[in-house]
Amino acid sequence: MNMRDKIKDGLGNKIKVWDERSARRIYFTVEPNDVYKSVEFIFKGLGLRFSTASGIDLPEGFEMLYHFSFDKAGEVYSLRALIKDKKRPEIDSIAPIFRGAEWVEREIWEMLGINFKGHPNLKRLLLAEDWPEGEFPLRRKNES
Amino acid sequence: MSHKVIVPIGPYHPMQEEPEFFQLYVEGEKVVDIDIIIGYNHRGIEKLAESKHYDQIAFLVERICGICSSSHPYAYVLAVEDLFGGEANIVPERALYIRTIIDELQRIHSHLLWLGLAGHFIGYNTVWMWAWKYREPVLDMFEMVTGNRNNYAMFKIGGVRRDIKDEDIPELKKMLDNLAPSIKMFYGAINDDPVIKARLKIAGTLTKEQAIDWCVVGPTARASGVNIDIRRDEPYGAFLMNTIDWNVVLEKDGDIFAKTMVRILEMEDSINIINQALNKMPKGEIDANVKDVPPGEGIGRVEAPRGECIHYIKSDGTNRPVRHKIRAPSFMNVASDKVAAVGGTISDATLTLAAVDPCYCCTERVAVINKADNKKIMNGWDLVRLSQEKTNKIKEGWPNGRPE
Prior knowledge:
Distance between the termini of chain B: 41 Å
CATH class of the largest domain in chain B: Mainly Alpha
Helix content of chain B: 40-55%
CATH class of the domain at 3-91 in chain A: Alpha Beta
Distance between the termini of chain A: 46 Å
CATH superfamily of the largest domain in chain B: Cytochrome-c3 Hydrogenase, chain B
Oligomer: heterodimer
Number of strands of chain A: 7
CATH topology of the domain at 3-91 in chain A: Beta Polymerase, domain 2
Strand content of chain A: 25-35%
Strand order of the largest sheet of chain B: 1-2-3
Strand order of the largest sheet of chain A: 1-2-5-4-3
Shape of chain B: globular
CATH superfamily of the domain at 3-91 in chain A: NADH:ubiquinone oxidoreductase Nqo5 subunit
CATH architecture of the largest domain in chain B: Orthogonal Bundle
Structural class of chain B: alpha+beta
Number of domains of chain B: 2
Strand content of chain B: 5-15%
Radius of gyration of chain B: 22 Å
Number of helices of chain B: 16
Largest interface: A-B, 35 and 37 residues
Order of helices and strands of chain A: HEEHEEEEHE
Number of strands of chain B: 10
Structural class of chain A: alpha/beta
Shape of chain A: globular
């Protein structure tokens, strides 16, 4: 069974959209509530390496992308979740599953203002101490 | 009564590419906890990239890092070329070889820089001077090929900006041939020296489980037995053609000695790779003259000297990206100092923090502060001196510098 089938099999109907852009780039979408369980399965169950995560401010919400690398085949699996609540965006932290996610989530928290529930140490990583509270540099409030 | 003392290391020096601030909590000699504070050099490049057009961004991301200044533009152009179905789809073959030659030259100069500073920290100033002496011809090669010793401006979407002239190739090969024996010498000198071994063997260990948990990349991961290398796993550049004969260097101990060995052996490999690429490079175009970037999402990854460098581009079909996400390898590696340095001694700390190859100048601004009265008791040079003294102690304990 190849990695695609293992992920499809393991996550079942959690996967809402499955999109194979090319031989080595696979994007799939899950609900924000399913992110923790999905990441746990991909990282612990299948042993994929976490590359990074990124957040984007879109008109319809905040989109989270978690990039996992399957190094044996050189494939990147990108797990996508759309947080629809733009006023108080929050999602489960994946840092309790593995330590490597801690900094990545701290960066997204301060840059986009997405609250990661259950993060062990959610404090500023890159922004200066005197940066004003509630100002998120990567949000698009000034652009139409 | 607790004797916990805070040792701040960092944060800032105008010459370094990644300023970091390490706060060591020590009890006596032992490091019990560590706080890592970064962000002193955050320039908002991701946001800035959204306001530049695709051709400009290659120059912008080149300035993220002064040492691996080809990795970021390379990962970026790969991310954009991913929108065209991949590098192999549009980039001419000759340009693929030129890209790899630049990328591997950069690996040699970056590893030599690291080796020199590691030598200095343990009190082997000869290693420092030699490593940097042999780094000079590598920079000269860069100048021959790209016109610059640093910030090469070679990468563009669809190809490279300059060709390698045929008459330069024999000279480049001669320089590589001169470099190879010195790398071998370093391997021998470090492998055979019992003092260096004693000093590096047990310090700063990161186990395989920890390496996976912290998602570290590059030599830091390979020294701990995690078998990853983007050049092999997702080939790019000349590696796409399967014509290059090379191996992924793997060690299993996870200590500083293993990290040193991985880097030295990788330099040998890089010389071989460049030699083969110079031989096998076909004649032809070096640029595909890409005009419009299609909408979509692209991910580009390269094996930078410090590990996987990954760029993500979201395009809406205009001439600027909607989102440009950059993750440099040190972002993952530096975080792992949290486990590698804890449990060790202060005299090993400078070396351990440096062993993941973040930027070095940060460790020059070191101060030891007593928590109770905030009084500075040591500065950066004191800490380097402490590290060097430990090496000397090992030497003195052994008659003739050898263990009995």
